[in-house]
Amino acid sequence: MTNKYILAISGNDIFSGGGLYADLATYTTNHLHGFLAVTCLTALTDKGFEVFATDDEVFDHQLNSLKDVPFSGIKLGLLPNVRLADKALEFVKEHKEIPIVLDPVLVCKEKHDVEVSALRDELLKFFPYVTIITPNLVEAELLTQMTIKTLDDMKVAAKRLVNLGAKHVVIKGGNRLSKEQAIDVFYDGKNYEVFETAVLDTNNIGAGCTFASSIASQLVLGKSAKEAVAVSKEFVYQAIRHSDKYGVKQNYDEK
Description:
Blueprint: E1 5-10, H1 19-29, E2 33-38, E3 40-45, E4 48-53, H2 56-65, E5 71-76, H3 82-93, E6 100-102, H4 113-124, E7 132-133, H5 137-144, H6 151-163, E8 169-172, E9 181-187, E10 192-198, H7 207-220, H8 225-241
Parallel strand pairs: 1-2, 1-5, 5-6, 6-7
Antiparallel strand pairs: 3-4, 8-9, 9-10
Helix pairs in contact: 1-7, 2-3, 5-6, 7-8
């Protein structure tokens, strides 16, 4: 373990596949000392998979408790509402000199369109202060308000996100464009890089969280944004490929 400290501002995943569990596991794998500010709890209820936002005052206390920790990096995951996102933004502004990764989680089944729109507008405010954003295709569509069907569409969306203030963008295509290849597009405002790996037939959850927290870890360890994405793409691929060795996979329809 190094003396580098890295923060995850993210939510609890009751199934322990994504969210803060993925963040801490990834930090530990990279020999970094991970800290947490928890944004929400999750659970299966009679209404399905639900997200319960952390109380505003409690979230404030968490961030205030961490204000003097000399963080070398921050990863932001699920911010369940505008109030908590605004509090996280103020914390980010105070740490804008360090690498910061924003995974702009926007799609929750219990959110209404009005809530998603308000949260979208709030997340756009983060763009000038973070190093890289890591939306999946659906999140990229919501942020850019365009439809993404092809690799060229992904490149157009990445450019739009930079025009909206992002410094670097990686759009996670998953297997939506191809059933054989998982395609991601990185853009730094000048050049595009397309990353492809074979699609693996698994039921794992948390790959997006792991990808973002791995990028944050690699930035803290001195990699450039493009290098961090390349290393993290391979890291997630290998983690999924070998996941059967370390636990029982389960298919949760609610996820």
